[in-house]
Q: What sequence folds into this?
């Protein structure tokens, strides 16, 4: 299944949130994600913005973006990106967002969840640091991130 089709099968209002390439990302975040072949970026959604005005999600710890990506000789998959300050003090907040995202995918976007599962584990959930990465690799917080599924905390995301 294509990323666009999976988005269109998600619950409202996300079903209308699909954009080509990286167009759903805020301008200030687009340059944080690079792809050697931009055609591999098959689409995007601003999940946070799509759900922000819905009362049932207004106070939830929403994840920022979903991206459609097709690696060479691989099926299309979904990658989830959170743009957030990356300090040990923020790990709890981002983990809450990830837990929320996983529950949301399970109950509101089954096809997007399937596309997420088809991504390499290291690229499913990515934290892009707004102020540099200030989480020591040997810290308890870094281990928590890895256990939860966030294997990449970086200033810029570079995809092949």
A:
């Amino acid at each position: 299944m294509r990323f666009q089709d999976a988005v269109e099968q998600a619950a409202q209002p996300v079903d209308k949130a699909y954009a080509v390439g990286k167009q759903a990302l805020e301008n200030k975040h687009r340059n944080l994600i690079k792809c050697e072949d931009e055609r591999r970026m098959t689409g995007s959604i601003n999940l946070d913005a799509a759900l922000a005005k819905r009362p049932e999600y207004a106070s939830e710890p929403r994840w920022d973006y979903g991206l459609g990506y097709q690696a060479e000789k691989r099926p299309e998959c979904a990658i989830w990106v959170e743009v957030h300050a990356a300090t040990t003090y923020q790990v709890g907040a981002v983990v809450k967002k990830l837990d929320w995202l996983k529950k949301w995918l399970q109950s509101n976007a089954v096809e997007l969840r399937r596309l997420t599962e088809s991504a390499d584990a290291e690229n499913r959930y990515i934290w892009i640091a707004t102020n540099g990465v200030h989480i020591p690799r040997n810290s308890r917080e870094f281990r928590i991130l890895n256990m939860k599924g966030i294997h990449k905390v970086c200033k810029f995301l570079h995809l092949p």
About this structure: The chain is about 30% helix and 25% strand. Residues 127 and 153 are 5 Å apart (CA to CA). The longest strand covers residues 77-87. The mean pLDDT is 97.
